Amino acid sequence: MKMPARWLLLPMALLGGMQAMAEEPLTLWEAMRRAAEANPAIRSRQVEVARQTLEQDIARGQHYPKLDLYGGVTHYGYPSLVTPIRQAGVFPPMDKDISTLGVTLTLPVYSGGKLAAGETLAAQHREAAVQALRSSGQDLLFNVVATYARALHFNHLRKALDARLTALEREEKDIGLRIEHGRAARLELIRLQTQLSQARHDEMAIAQGERDALSLLASLMGDSRPASVLADFGGTAPAVPGTEEAALGRALRHRPDLLELQAMEKAAGAKTDIARGDRLPQLNLVARAQKAAGSDSTVYNDWQAGLQLSIPLFDGAVRRRRVSQARLEERRVQLMQEDVRNRLAAEVQQARGTLSEAQARLATALQGESEAEEVLRIETLRYDSGESTITDLLLAESARWGAVATRLQAEYDIAVSQARLLRAVGELAPDSFKPVSADGGAAGPSDPAGAGRREAPATRHVGAPLSGFEF
Fold first, then answer.
1. Which of 1, 10, 358, 388 is deepest in the core (most CB within 10 A)?
2. pTM for the complete prediction?
3. How does pLDDT run across 146-171, given as a tens digit for each residue?
């Protein structure tokens, strides 16, 4: 029985579909989202936030009464009172085996403000943990952007170099034919082969750099398998501050390391309040209800309620020194905040300056690349017509390759500078580089309109991954 031919083609079609799905390009915003969700360092920070949340609940619970159930059976060497004296003139029973069961209630009435300060301390510790999580997330996302852009940069360099190698190899065959017909000297072939060998070495180094960048990107995303295909950047630039003053103002409001220090300052103030509270009287309401029985199983009820007052008198100045220690901690955090504010201005200025310089360099590189292509075209025509030598042609070709590499480097620097500026103001997010769709919403990874990729001119051999942004 023969199987129809179309049945034989079905597994091949399914395999081809699975391979196409497996090679779906990884977008930058998807890489950032995965890193934010799966990176082990970020997850450990999230665990710390959860721990501090429980600590805050514990501090809040210190205000409530404490109710404890206790009980026991005790054998005494000599008869002991089963219950205290209940009325005058009546001696209570005695026994060697006494069982007790009771409930104790403790309610803090006055603690010198320590309970409220403890709740504030826990809340500020949680806020500091949240801001530390944000700070680690900002650093992680910046590293993802830098690594992704670097891998994409190497990828485009490799494609441009592949086109260059193809052109050089084609020229090598052409010179070989010219030598056979006596129209070229052997020296021209040697010079071209030297250039070709260097280009092949460059291709190996660039390919290795791309593999290393992809491996590091996978590590940042918490994945052991590097992505095989990366998507070009989308067509929309991230929303960066328009002026240095605006960037600095947003940094002062949103920088997680500064907000973390502000929370630490409040926590240090709460520690000072707790240390002061240790020097004040403590007043608690204590109540207890108890049942006791001896060997005859007769149960006797008893209860008591009262106030317990504790006044610190002398402790070798320990409490006073703890207050001074807490104040010093508060001052230390204030100085750290001042240092961060001073560094913010320089960091924002440098980030904006680097971005502006990269944008200007890209404009110059685009013009230089266009000119280098025109020079190469002219030199190719002159060489084909015998008006110039292979040296002139190789110089023009090297100049065009250098112009392409300069443009790609400028595009890489722009993406990294944008991420650095967003991190400087504390606003780098997983969707910062996600293109905006036509309806104003963020375009998903599979949205063709949001992909924003454009094809490169035929003479450039490589796409422009970042110059599609509106700078």
1. 358
2. 0.78
3. 999 999 999 999 988 888 888 888 88
